[in-house]
Design goal:
This protein has about 140 residues and is mainly alpha-helical. The chain has one domain: Orthogonal Bundle (Cytochrome Bc1 Complex, Chain D, domain 2), CATH 1.10.760.10. Helix content is about 45%, strand content about 5%. A hairpin with a 2-residue loop joins strand 1 and strand 2. Helix 3 packs across helix 5 and helix 4 crosses helix 6.
Length: about 140
């Protein structure tokens, strides 16, 4: 339930927190090489980083409801989290990548929740800051919409 409240508050406070400063963005772009074994960054035909297809495309992840990338087959737990209101923020992304399975168990309240993502990233702040610059939320903030 802690995550549900965090997700609800985060929807109203979407944006870059002070802890996610510009210095993290450049480092996150470099650190993304840890992710590209499974994930791609592409805005339509504009491929920013070509990676694996084991995981979903992460372009526009910040501000998107969990488990909703078209064409990707998510596990039941992440879909359930999205249906319960999980909208990715940079802070929630940092918590998720540290322990995907544990995050989903706590968020959904389901002790049997699982994540298809087995990789754990102890320090995901830089990657979260970088991903926060890519997609609809970042574009809306840049244009003032």
């Amino acid at each position: 339930m802690k995550y549900l409240m965090t997700a609800i508050v985060a929807v109203f406070a979407a944006g870059t927190s002070g802890a996610m400063a510009d210095g993290h963005i450049a480092k996150g772009e470099s650190d993304f090489k840890k992710c590209k074994a499974c994930h791609t960054l592409a805005n339509g035909d504009d491929v920013i980083i070509k990676g694996g297809r084991t995981g979903p495309n992460l372009y526009g992840m910040v501000g998107r409801t969990a488990g909703t990338v078209e064409g990707y087959k998510y596990g039941d737990s992440i879909v359930a989290a999205g249906e319960a209101g999980l909208v990715w923020t940079q802070d929630l992304l940092v918590e998720y990548v540290a322990d995907p399975k544990g995050f989903l168990k706590e968020f959904t309240g389901d002790s049997g929740a699982r994540s298809k993502m087995s990789f754990k990233l102890k320090n995901g702040e830089n990657i979260a800051a970088y991903l926060g610059t890519l997609g609809a939320v970042a574009e809306a903030e840049a244009t003032g919409n």
